[in-house]
Amino acid sequence: MNSTNGISAVTPSDDLLARIQLKIKQQEKVAPTTVWWIAASIAVLLTLNVALLQKAKTRDNSTSSYLEHTLNQSNQLY
Amino acid sequence: MPKQNVIFEPIYHEFKVMVFNLALHYLQNIEDAEEVTQDVFVKVYHSLAQFQQRSSYKTWIYRITINQCLDFTKKKNSRKRLYLFGQKSENEREYLNTTNFEHPGILMENQEAAAQLFSVINTLTENQKTAFLLSKLDGLSNPEIAEIMEMSISAVESLIFRAKASLQEKLSKKFNEYRKK
Questions:
Q1: Same domain? B96 vs B57
Q2: Residue among B12, B48, B132, B140 with most chain A CBs within 10 A, to mutate
Q3: Are residues B125 and B93 in contact, defined by beta-carbon separation less than 8 angstroms?
Q4: By CA distance, what is B120's nearest residue in A?
Q5: Among B118, B32, B31, B104, CA closest to B68
Q6: Closest Cβ opposite residue A3 in set B9, B20, B114
Q7: What is the pLDDT of residues A8-65, one digit of tens each?
């Protein structure tokens, strides 16, 4: 338990501040407007996808009901 | 010029040693501690404009550092799990090297014993570890720790008491196992 006695404070390397400032600058490069544009485009793409899927689903339903109708007519047993 | 640009550098110079050393106590590795220190100050820079001075800069920065250290540990542990079960990556060796005990603030002759002690400290619960490190290594008083951890003083006292008891028990177990060998 006493092995940490006399523990001394350590100073971080001199270039750490420069690295932090670089990281801040890199993060600031992406403007908030760009982020909004990307978010909006993703939203539009998602809506289009959902709309297309809905359309395909309704078309599927109509084809199968047509098939059922014609099959019932031709396979009439009595 | 925005407010954060003016006061950021003085804040960095005032608290860099505090942040780096707390991260070092938490993670016991120079590279990891530097990475966390970087992230802490980037966060401080971005949050300076919203800082409402309800607490001191010291308390606020301590909180950010603790949270950042906990996040870092969680990320590292999940990466470790991925390495164990997933495909072996080329930089695995590099990753494993960074988990080695490396604390430049501890005397050379105490390094081995300290490594053992820290391996046991790492098994404590998050709150116990935080309270213990802040009290024993950073030398903060219980009211200061209570403010940082947003707890009552009695809760902090109990955390430190339980941490010490758990450490003593685990260390004595380890010592007995070592003697048997």
A1: yes
A2: B12
A3: no
A4: A1
A5: B32
A6: B114
A7: 888 999 999 999 999 998 887 777 788 899 999 999 999 999 999 998 888 777 766 7
Structural domain for B136, as ranges: 106-181
pLDDT at B96 exceeding the cut of 50 = no
Q: Model's pTM, two decimal places? A: 0.72
Q: In this predicted complex, what is the ipTM?
A: 0.74
Q: Select from B65, B83, B79, B78 the least CA-distant residue to B27.
A: B65
Instruction: Judge if B94 and B118 occupy the same domain.
Output: no
Residue showing tokens 């301590």: B62
CB contact under 8 A, B114 and A4: yes
Q: Which of B16, B105, B167 sits opposite A1 (nearest CB)?
A: B167
What DSSP line would sit under B112-165, residue for residue? HHHHHHHHHHTTS-HHHHHHHIIIIIS---HHHHHHHHTS-HHHHHHHHHHHHH
pLDDT in tens, B100-138: 777 777 777 777 888 888 989 999 999 999 999 999 989
CATH number for the domain spanning B165: value is 1.10.10.10
